[in-house]
Structures are given as C-alpha cells and as structure tokens.
Specification:
heterodimer; A: about 280 residues; mainly alpha; B: mainly beta
Chain lengths: ~280, ~70
C-alpha cells in the first residue's frame, strides 16, 4: 500500500495532460516530479525492511576494504603504495568503482521493476534509469565522504582539500555511468543476457584497473594497456587529489569531461531509439 | 464531469498496433539492430488496423476481440 500514492498521482497527471495536449514546459515539470518520485522509491524500497536501512550501503564496501586490507597487508605484506598507506590508497579508489559497478548493474535491470507501469502508461522510460543510477551514486558518495572523514580522524594521510577536484571527478563519472547504463538497460529489455555478461566483465575490469595495486607494480610492457583504461585515469586523478593534494587541472580532465558527455548522449540516443518497443518486451 | 454532452473526451483516427515478432533464436539482436537504424521491426504481427472512434462525455464503450487482439491496451 505504501507505494501506491506516487503511482496514482502520476497516472492522473499523465492522463490529464494528454487530454489538454501538454506542451514541453509541462512535460519537463512532470518528468522532474516523476524523477523525484522514482528516486525516493529506489532509496526507500532498496533497504526497506532491513533493520539498519541505508547503513547497508556503507557495510558492503567497508567489508571489502577490510578484507583487502587483511589480504594485502597481513598475508601478502605488499608495500610501495602512494602515501605509504594501503588503507587510504584503496579506500580512495574502491568507492568510485563499486558505486559505478552497482549503478550499472542495478540500472541495467531497473526497467523490469516497472514493467507494469511501462506497459500501461506513456511516460519517458529513461527517468527510471536516471532515478536508479542517481540513487546508487548518491548513496555511495555519502558513504565515500563518511569514510574519508573517518580515515582522516584515524590519522590516515588523506587530504580533504582534494575533494575540490574529487567531487567534479565524481560528476564526470556519474555522467559516463548514466550513459552506459542507459545503453545496457535498453539492450537488457530485448536481450536478457546483458546482465549476466556484465557481472563477470565488471569483475574482470575491476582487477585490471589499478584499484588494489599501484600502476608502478604493473610490468613495464603491460603498463600502457592498464593505464589506457579510462577508469585507471579517474582513479589516478582521485589519488593525485586526495592522497597528494595535487589540485591543478590537466588537459586530460577536459578530454574526460567531453568523453563522458559523449557517452551519455550516445547511450541516450540508443535508449530513445529502442524505448518505443519496451512496452511489448519488458 | 460538467464538460457538456457534446465534448469529445477521446478521439482516435486510424489507430493501429503492430507487435514485433521474434522469428528465430537470437532474433532479438536483429530487432535491436533494425530499431537502431530506425527501420522498424522486420517481422510484425498486426493486431489492430485503422481504428477510428470518438468517445464523448457520458458514453460507454466496450471493446471485444479475440485473445491477443490488443483489447487490453485500449
């Protein structure tokens, strides 16, 4: 019963506007209201019924961080991390990756959760994907900021002024991830294999990205391949900012920003091409 | 409603409905490809063709048809 109100409100407004022949400003207003409704719904239903609620969003990455810390410093006794601290080195990079991964995975299957609505009501389906991605990213960004502050209080060498660069980098990440998710979500409606392909591919990509190890440990001959991964670039910039306090902008920042926007529009183009057929396949 | 007896609530003019058909295994990829280039589905099942009617305030309209004839969509 809890989740009916947003739906009822929406269905009423859609039909009322169709009757009046709604124009662009009204539609934009309606889409914003839709987004807010979906976004709240994503956040409340995701951890609904669990006792700790939203704190679960923090528990999963924290547990991973603890395990990696144990394996790499207690078992393998690796050294040579920028800033000298494995915990800070990995924490700075782990959250952006996990949130991107979770946003892509959840977003890809998000349309299926609204199948009933998609079949019955005319509304821009991409709003569902936006809400799903935004919910995941906002949740994990909050977790990231919390962990950074805790690590600083703990005495880890993290420069909080680096957030001035780290937050815009998160925005670049969010734009690119939204584009990718739009693409995968649209494809998933027709080809159900997409989510099963994503799972191993994302896991492999994580280990091919210098999240758990510094780029300098990669053999010289393979280094350009690892460094060429766009996510490696993002992680490198985040570490520059948060571990070394380097805030200067580089030309690569502009390239990344443009690439992210290009990915977003490409993903949205695919999504909009396929979305008229969703109602018959979702 | 107080819209007056002659106010049209809903007017359909030559409406139809095609369902894209997946003919063979992996046909979904073919469909996605066709849609991407704006070609429309290669194989369709035409469930509804050229339906026109006007529904006024206070009128009732029942829709009857075979299973799968898109009655539910109306």
């Amino acid at each position: 019963m809890l989740f009916f109100p947003p739906f009822t409100v929406m269905i009423q407004s859609t039909s009322a506007e169709h009757a009046r022949g709604a124009r662009a400003p009204l539609a934009a207003q309606r889409d914003r209201a839709l987004f807010v409704n979906f976004w709240k719904r994503e956040l409340t239903t995701r951890y609904l019924g669990s006792i700790t609620g939203l704190a679960w969003a923090l528990v999963h990455p924290l547990a991973l961080l603890a395990v990696y810390h144990f394996v790499f410093t207690t078992v393998f006794r690796t050294t040579g991390f920028a800033g000298g601290s494995f915990l800070a080195f990995v924490a700075v990079a782990l959250w952006p990756w996990l949130s991107a991964q979770e946003a892509i995975q959840r977003g890809t299957t998000s349309l299926a959760g609204y199948a009933g609505l998609i079949r019955k009501v005319a509304f821009p389906h991409e709003v569902i994907v936006y809400a799903s991605v935004a919910a995941t990213l906002v949740l994990h960004l909050a977790g990231y900021l919390t962990v950074l502050v805790v690590l600083v209080l703990w005495g880890e060498p993290i420069r909080l002024e680096g957030l001035l660069l780290a937050l815009p980098l998160w925005l670049v990440l969010a734009i690119a991830v939204t584009g990718l998710t739009l693409f995968f979500a649209a494809l998933q409606v027709f080809v159900r294999d997409v989510e099963h392909v994503l799972l191993p591919v994302l896991m492999i990509l994580m280990y091919l990205t210098p999240i758990l190890y510094p780029l300098t440990l990669v053999p010289e001959s393979l280094r350009p391949w690892v460094a060429g991964n766009p996510f490696s670039w993002l992680i490198g910039r985040l570490r520059d900012a948060l571990l070394e306090g380097k805030l200067a902008l580089a030309w690569s920042d502009a390239v990344a920003g443009i690439a992210a926007v290009a990915i977003f529009f490409a993903g949205r183009w695919v999504f909009r091409r396929l979305s008229p057929q969703f109602e018959d396949f979702v | 409603m107080s819209g007056g007896a002659s106010a049209a609530l809903l007017a359909l003019d030559g409406v139809g409905k095609d369902y894209a058909k997946i003919e063979q295994r992996g046909g979904e990829l073919r469909l996605v490809w066709d849609l991407l280039w704006g070609r429309g589905a290669a194989h369709v099942f035409r469930a509804l063709e050229d339906v026109s009617f006007t529904l006024r305030c206070g009128e009732s309209l029942g829709i009857v048809g075979e299973n799968g004839a898109a009655n539910r969509r109306s």
